[in-house]
Structures are given as C-alpha cells and as structure tokens.
Amino acid sequence: MEFLQAIEQIGPVRLLKASFFVYPVVNTLHIAAIGTLFGSVLLMDLSVLGAIRSVPHRILVALLRRAALAAFVVAVLTGLALFSVQATDYVRNPVFLTKLGLILLAGLNFFAFLALDRRPQENAAALRISAVASILLWSGVLLDGRFIGFV
Predict the structure, then answer these.
(1) Where are the chain's structural domains?
(2) DSSP reduced 3-state for 120
(3) Three-class SS string for 18-81?
(4) pTM for the whole thing?
C-alpha cells in the first residue's frame, strides 16, 4: 500500500488530482479511447459473425485492428493516469479488479483469435465463439468501468 500511496503523491498526479481542467480532459480521452476500442472490436466481431458483408472481412479487420490497437494504448495510458489519482482506493474496489480481469481475458481471447484467424476456413466455429466471447468480455469491461464509481 505504501507504493500506491507514493504514486498518489507524485507531482504530476497531485496536479492531475487538483486540476479543474486536466482531470476532466484525461477522463474524456479515456472514454473516447474506450468508445473507439469497443466500436472497432464490435465491428470486427460482427464481421466474423457474418453480420457485416458489404466490406471484405480481411480489409475491415486490417483497418479496424489498427484503430483498436491505438485506442487500447490511449485507454491504458489515460487509465493509468486516472488510476494514479486514487490508486489505494482502486486496488480495494472489487469492480475495478473485475474490470482488470476482464481486460486480461479479452486480451487472451484476442491472441487466440489471431492464432485461429491464420486459417479461418478450418477454424470458422472457433472464430465465431471467440467473436461472441469478445463482445461479452468488452461489454463487461464497459459495464464494470461505469460501476467503479458506485461501489
């Protein structure tokens, strides 16, 4: 806990905590990144499930994967900044910990998807299961993110 308390006392973190302007901007960037990430992932998953047929799957995934990766990086960086303001509280929050667990599972699912997607014809059923799991996991991350402040 001392380490987390020390994080909360770092100069930039105290500035973030005290600023009327900076904290809302970081929070807005976090929300925008999560929206971009979720939207990109959802569209890729719907493509795998056959709900989007107007754009070839490979082209859609190549485009959206880059957007999802960039959004994930921004979400992680802004999330770390937001975490640093109340680190000692967040590590005790079961909803926050569940969110982290779901992000980890979604990441593992993503790497499984990449492995399966090398041979999509052979792994069609597994890819669809992975797409459904992705939608459920990222929806859980969103839901948990909204509930963190209420627990």
Answers:
(1) 2-150
(2) coil
(3) HCCCHHHHHHHHHHHHHHHHHHHHHHHHHHHCCCCCCCCHHHHHHHHHHHHHHHHHHHHHHHHH
(4) 0.89
